[in-house]
Amino acid sequence: MAAKRRKDPLWARLILSFGAVLVVASGGTLVAAQVVINKAENSITSGTLIEGDAAAASDGSGNNIDGAVNLLLVGIDAREEGSSVTSVLSDTIIILHIPETHDQAYLISIPRDWRVEMPAYDKVGFVGATGKINSAFSFGYEGDGTELEKRSRGMAVLSNTLNKITGIKFNGAAIIDFNGFASVIHAMGGVDMCVDEEAESAHLGVDANGKLVQGWYSETYGIQLPEGVKPLVHKKGCRLMNSTEALDYARIRKSLSDGDYGRQRHQQQLIKAIAKKATSSGVLTDLSKLNALTEAAGEAFVLDTGGIQLADFIYTLKGVAANDLMLIKTNAGNLNSVTIDGQSFEQLDGESMDMLSAAKSGTLGTFLIEHPQFIAKSS
């Protein structure tokens, strides 16, 4: 019988990317795992992000999680404590789905312009509304409170909205501060990314000496840069990107042939690239780099494990390897827009809703066999 391929836990890779880590050495030996997990738990900001019907039932006990695992990953712009900003949109919405077999993982990107009905949320006096799903976070975020309290409320409105539409219950969630995420990529020495389509930046330029220059984007005039600075163009091909380049590439949508679907795909690819790099030998064997990564990740996101210990998550998902991470797109990556009262929205077609139903029922693998067009490029 052929030897079974050894797997490094995907959840360990993802959580290492975000700050909660399990160190896996060659041969599958756990090296100082509890010490590293404790350090991660002390670095990470935790809170209750999933409430009400959206939360999967758990008593927080035991070393193994029964059934499918669904985690909600949300990316937002950075906000400082005490900021005067009263509204924050969720730029990135991803469901990490792992079936009850715990041997496969799927990243399902939700279009931020999806027109949905958002349920009421009494904590902020929100009576419900119909609009783009990325605004659900902002309705919960508004009002008084600390930054953590605002973000937690925003996630609650968003997760309740997704639960109402799809029926999916979440075992946990993470709010990712993508500006803070730059320090995570920097701590790893950059990430390997493959540009699948030439893309012009809407936020970065390059001067005559090849130095990157930060610009800003105007809906009316496009990218705004100092005189003599040209927009950065990401050329096709695979290469090591620093944090500025990688995050910029993952934000682009205007210059892509498939618009926001291309942006979703590149964000998924970035998460997978970070997951791979985070447990590469170059990171795991460099204690200073590993410590810097853990500290940086602790500032990059807020984590809710639904009352389940991190070690239990890792134990449960130890059979999932990084190569088992499948990237999923809604509408098979095709735009399905509609204009209502002068505003453009994205609609999910019937097959996309069937795909989300399959995730809820634990039959997503079967659905994708029958509908391979929903699988995105992994690199």
Automatic annotation (TrEMBL):
Signal peptide: none
InterPro entries referenced in this protein's UniProt entry, alphabetically: LytR/CpsA/Psr_CW_biosynth (IPR050922), LytR_CpsA_psr (IPR004474)
Taxonomic superkingdom: Bacteria
Organism: Catenuloplanes indicus
Residues in Cell envelope-related transcriptional attenuator domain copies: 90-279
Pfam families membership: LytR_cpsA_psr
Similarity comment: Belongs to the LytR/CpsA/Psr (LCP) family.
Record-given protein name: LCP family protein required for cell wall assembly
